[in-house]
Amino acid sequence: METETATNWLSDDEQCAWRTYLDVNRMLTYQMEKDLQPFGLTNNDYEILVNLSESADRRMRMSDLAAATLQSKSRLSHQITRMENAGLVRRENCESDRRGLFAVLTEHGTETMEKVAPHHVASVRRHFIDLLSGEALADLRESLAPVADHLRGHRGKI
Amino acid sequence: METETATNWLSDDEQCAWRTYLDVNRMLTYQMEKDLQPFGLTNNDYEILVNLSESADRRMRMSDLAAATLQSKSRLSHQITRMENAGLVRRENCESDRRGLFAVLTEHGTETMEKVAPHHVASVRRHFIDLLSGEALADLRESLAPVADHLRGHRGKI
DNA sequence: CCTAAGAAGTTGAATTCTGAACCAAGTGTG
DNA sequence: CACACTTGGTTCAGAATTCAACTTCTTAGG
């Protein structure tokens, strides 16, 4: 009597879709990183800058920023230290909760963001957005949104 | 006279699609990593194992493996060293080109692969494939394939 | 042949990332 | 109020990654 459940392997089509997805993923990340390099920024740096620049007062609590970027507190702490040394952000105390800190975009950080953003958008267009039809893009969003929701609800679980 | 070209910012829809894509990307990577952890493997480890196990004689030249996984030679070298220490692969000399080395799956590597693969497939299904309809999956593949081709042709360029 | 150029890999130092341990400050409960 | 518990964040040590030499072997030219 078979107790082990037979593995539900991926069909050829599924396999192919999955691999394509993985490939795009990796190559796109790689390319974005390359396109950011001339400006002395990494993908991580840029993501922090985006998050801060879109927040009220260009500031975010460390833990919110960590959650938003799906990084560990530890990693974010290091990351912000580096960006602080680069003059892009600074840490500021939180009045209402004295354990807390804000990461705040500096003037230089803001300028950097304004300078780099157009190039980054161009890069995103060139290597992704503009290669998809409007319909394909809409489909992509609709297909991926439930996946995103699923994964968001799954944080930290097995 | 304006010499600078106005930036072609992303529309709301484009922005949303792009962010969803990025989010799925990050969360999915994270989740795959977590699901592999109980087996003592990382995503990188697993990818190497997949590549090797699908190759003739369960072996690949170091540089081919590096190209296939989009890693630098250096990184792959370190990675293989680690996996060698874990008994998953071994290095073997190449007869026809004495500079060359093969990374070869060991018996233990093969067994590990056989043990882990079903769980990994289940994970891929649970967090991605099974959340998409067959049609969505086909669309995804068709949409992403040109992106993959574009990026493949772009390796290393600005 | 002999040499220069290039390809295959490795190595080592500097940087980044991870995970656990830690400190300090807020929260809630009897 | 005092206690334990949680939350916000940093720090340290160990592991992984990057980057720039460096070694060995191959190949192409003269």
UniProtKB/TrEMBL annotation, chains A, B:
<feature type="domain" description="HTH marR-type">
    <location>
        <begin position="14"/>
        <end position="149"/>
    </location>
</feature>
<dbReference type="InterPro" id="IPR036390">
    <property type="entry name" value="WH_DNA-bd_sf"/>
</dbReference>
<dbReference type="InterPro" id="IPR036388">
    <property type="entry name" value="WH-like_DNA-bd_sf"/>
</dbReference>
<protein>
    <submittedName>
        <fullName>Transcriptional regulator</fullName>
    </submittedName>
</protein>
<dbReference type="InterPro" id="IPR000835">
    <property type="entry name" value="HTH_MarR-typ"/>
</dbReference>
<dbReference type="Pfam" id="PF12802">
    <property type="entry name" value="MarR_2"/>
</dbReference>
<dbReference type="InterPro" id="IPR039422">
    <property type="entry name" value="MarR/SlyA-like"/>
</dbReference>
